[in-house]
Design goal:
Length: 309
């Protein structure tokens, strides 16, 4: 994108009413700084509910709101009703990727390798035997996700996940390496491996700067130490999952590489973190894409989606 094509005024939407508000504020700070460094006029807008005010002369809303409201199609619908152009996927793509059960159905329909699963309602018990993973269907940043290794842990896990959603996805636990692949349009970025200290990449491990007292952290290896043939297979699988969900702009696809060497897609995040500890900017940097350049690519791909629609 040439400088003359940059939007003149961008509203950076941050915060949101969901459980990932603090992460969103950190993402927005990074995005605002990057856009200002390019000479773009930026207005920071703290969104607390659907009644947020936007300046009338903004050319684009840059969505930095993770999780519920910002990532699930709600904010997208509000912006479309107001006639405001925005970054990221449209209403349907956002909704499909955010709902873990809907995503799973689309992966299965498109023959994308993904762990065996079942859907239950809060209060029900799964047919699947442990070890398994209990997931609230519509949350991000591992909120409402519990790994169950023993039968006596199951009731507490179901109760915990049900705090966040009445629909639960039960997934067979697959032991292996945690990988993530950033997608920009038709480009799969280098694979990044996450090695959490403590064994589980939870909220505190993802965002150690939000809770330093927890002492949680993770090592990132990018590009991941995976041979060339398998790297290509995993990147193609991530792209196929991205397309199966009807996505066209950008996302970060989480993949589990099993101990036997088989990759399984877990989910796609359509508003992935862009904080100092985030994975998408790290993957982009490994591909030679700077943080401000990444923001411009997101804007460019979002415009292309809008024009295509």
């Amino acid at each position: 994108m040439k400088k003359g094509d940059f939007p003149k005024k961008i509203a950076v939407l941050k915060g949101g009413p969901g459980s990932e508000r603090d992460v969103s504020l950190a993402t927005a700070a990074g995005v605002s700084k990057a856009l200002r460094s390019l000479g773009i006029e930026v207005v920071d807008v703290d969104v607390r509910d659907e009644n947020f005010a936007l300046p009338k002369d903004v050319d684009l809303a840059f969505n930095c709101i993770h999780g519920t409201f910002g990532e699930d199609g709600t904010l997208q619908k509000i912006l479309e009703e107001r006639g405001v152009a925005y970054t990221g996927e449209g209403i349907e793509g956002s909704r499909a990727a955010f709902d873990k059960i809907l995503s799973k159905e689309k992966f299965i329909a498109h023959k994308i390798a993904t762990p065996e699963s079942e859907m239950i309602r809060a209060g029900q018990r799964p047919k699947m035997s442990v070890p398994l993973v209990v997931k609230a269907a519509r949350q991000g940043s591992t909120v409402g996700v519990v790994i169950v290794k023993k039968e006596n842990q199951l009731d507490a896990a179901l109760k915990e996940a049900a705090k966040f959603d009445d629909k639960l996805l039960i997934e067979k636990f697959v032991s292996g390496r945690e990988l993530t692949i950033g997608i920009l349009g038709d480009q799969a970025l280098p694979i990044l491996e996450i090695i959490p200290k403590g064994g589980f990449y939870d909220f505190n491990t993802k965002y150690p700067f939000l809770n330093p007292q927890a002492g949680a952290s993770a090592q990132h290896v990018c590009p991941a130490k995976v041979d060339n043939a398998l790297t290509k297979k995993i990147q193609e699988l991530a792209l196929a999952a991205f397309r199966a969900l009807g996505l066209v702009v950008y996302a970060r696809v989480d993949v589990l590489l099993s101990d036997s060497g088989e990759p399984f897609v877990l989910e796609a995040n359509t508003i992935p973190g862009m904080t100092e500890a985030s994975l998408l900017p790290e993957g982009a940097a490994a591909a030679g894409i700077s943080y401000p350049e990444l923001c411009l690519r997101i804007i460019e791909l979002s415009r292309a989606r809008k024009e295509k629609e």
